[in-house]
Prior knowledge:
Layout: E1 9-14, H1 18-30, E2 35-38, H2 43-52, E3 57-61, H3 69-79, E4 85-89, H4 94-103, E5 107-110, H5 114-154, E6 159-163, E7 166-170, H6 172-178, H7 200-211, E8 220-225, E9 231-243, E10 246-255, H8 262-272, H9 283-300, E11 304-311, H10 314-321, H11 326-340, E12 346-349, E13 355-359, H12 364-379, E14 383-385, E15 388-390, E16 394-401, H13 408-424, E17 429-433, H14 438-459, E18 462-468, E19 470-471, E20 479-487, E21 493-494, H15 496-505, H16 509-529, E22 535-539, H17 542-545, H18 548-561, E23 568-573, H19 574-579, H20 581-592, E24 597-603, H21 609-612, E25 620-623, H22 635-651, E26 654-657, H23 663-672, E27 676-677
Parallel strand pairs: 1-2, 1-3, 3-4, 4-5, 16-17, 20-22, 22-23, 23-24, 24-25, 25-26, 26-27
Antiparallel strand pairs: 6-7, 6-10, 8-9, 9-10, 11-13, 11-16, 12-13, 14-15, 18-20, 19-27, 20-21
Helix pairs in contact: 2-3, 16-18, 22-23
Amino acid sequence: MQFGKDMALRLLIVDDSVEAAEAIVSGLRNAGIAVRPSRPETEDEFQSLIESQPQDMVLAAQNAGSVPLARVMEKVDASGKDLPVLVLVSSLDETALLKMMGMGARRVVLREHMDHVLHVLRAEWVDLEARRSYRRLDAQMREIERRCDALIDSSRDPIAYIHEGMHIRANAAYLEMFGFDSFEDIEGMSLLDLVASKKVDEFKKLLKQLSKGEAPPPRYETEAVTVTGTHFPAVMEFTQATYEGENCLQVVLRKQEEVFDPQAAAELERLRQLDQVTGLLNRPTFLRALEDAVGETAAKATSHGLLLIEPDHYARLLQDLGLDAADDLVAAVAERLRSTVGANDIVARFGEHQFAVLTHNSDYAQTSRLAESLRAAFADTVIEARNHSLNITLSIGGVQVGEKIANVAAILGKASQGLQSTIGVGGNRSELHDPSATDRAELERVAAWVARLREAIATDQFVIHFQPLVPLHGAPDEMYETLLRLRGEDGGLVQPLTFLPIAEEHGLLGDIDRWVVGRAIRLIADRQRINRRTRLMVKITQASLQDDSLLAYIGEQLKIQRVDGRLLVLQIPESKVFTNLRGAQQFQAGVAEFGVRVGLEQFGIGLNPFQLLTHFDASFIKIDRSFMKDLASTPELQQRIREFASKAQELGKQTIAEHVQDAGSMSTLFSAGIDYAQGHFLAPAGPEMDYEFG
């Protein structure tokens, strides 16, 4: 499960100490978990929050007086909701632990150990989402079964369901074929009774094989007999199925004369499965094969390998060959792949210039060797395409498919993530995710990324995109937010979420901040030279709050470029200021001498965000994007936005709403009195500052 800003944990914290509760929220946010907390101070408020708002979890102090733990458990139990309660304790006591478990608490959390809080909370959130997913899937399955029943009943194909050789379901076409008036006439009858006597022994062998769990043949020819004794040649098609929770076989039975020429039908089906340019399997066919492999993994604990593959610098290769040679290039790559993989490996064209390989019954070592053999087969060989000799390298992202990741969407997501990461650090390499041995691949990936980031800082390989902040009230002024990107080896752009966590772990955020700030000041100077007074908003990280040299660097660059400091606006996440208040205050005082303003982003998801403004004089607040999701249709969020705007106006702070996605949200923001709006609905981020303000 992924934790991040786009998925907020709705957390009820029952604790007499607001400082202790705020410390927990801050710890969660520092760990990358977006939190939308509430802290009820009375039993009635707790009851109201449970009834009126969706919640994910309750974190209740063992000795809370405002809402005692016993009352918390009673009210949660009475609500009938799947709302896990975690109990905060200072120390473990066997008797108290058993008592809390008996009351219905899911887990006990050691308050003084934030690592334990994080571990338990993540585990419970994963379990909660799994239960919710199961309920959704169960409801969807019931609806799908209902629709399937309706389709089977109305189908012209004769269809029956067989359990242990007996009929448990048959549609009207099946009954009509054999001359029965209703299902009661055939219910419980053996399928053998509808097979001609001379074919019974052979058919018994088939049923015995099926009873042992062997896979049914996709097609079986026999001779059937109707209730009046009429014989006819028939073809049966078997599919594993379930009916009312029982494993069974679905049988589609057709008269022989109604069946197409089997050879022609087989050839037609084969052609439908192929990509016409490469002769490899097409994407839909490959996905079915992957689903079968995943199903086998879940049922039999087998292990398989999936590889996603792209030729490096594809756009550059096409420039050399000409756009009309795209099919020739793809076909040449496909042929080389086909000649390199094993006889039992499945190869497909998965996208325009992306390929996929599924290797069955392969452990991590075998999948790694296959990935390396594919990489080497291209790196060490010249390929012919459209009368050109090309040396092509590959980027490969892979996943070791096992019980820990037996989900098609997760498998493809991890493989794609590995592929993009490989492309981002230069290509001609493979990155294989193994859920059972994550550390092995992770160390190699991180090392490559650290080297890549150091090189990007040293050689100016970062790129800035710009998104306008549109004023909702008053005269328009020109202001953009700067958004950092990394130029990939293939000419594409790598998004910051891919590399910033690694940069933070390895102490590179300060260097990146310095690059962005310096670049922003030069851009403001460039705009001044064409008589455009443009303000740029720049994100900085907590690392910069502890870097005294950054203050001097900002002052120096403003002076060199002759830039008015008021045109540079810095923003820091609310949670980072809260956990490093003294450093933030000193930094703000320092840059204020140059006229530079500092504001708060990701604002509003703490327990009492406006309390922070009594200690930190932010020039603006940027409301966290989680408040924009479904804003137009959620009264609770609309009320929160109005509160933010009202309190900010009282304090003389400007407000910014980011990630605005629709006209309804814009209407809410305008009527609430929000000062600026930002988002793809207004203008997407891009490499140019070309928005028409005014």
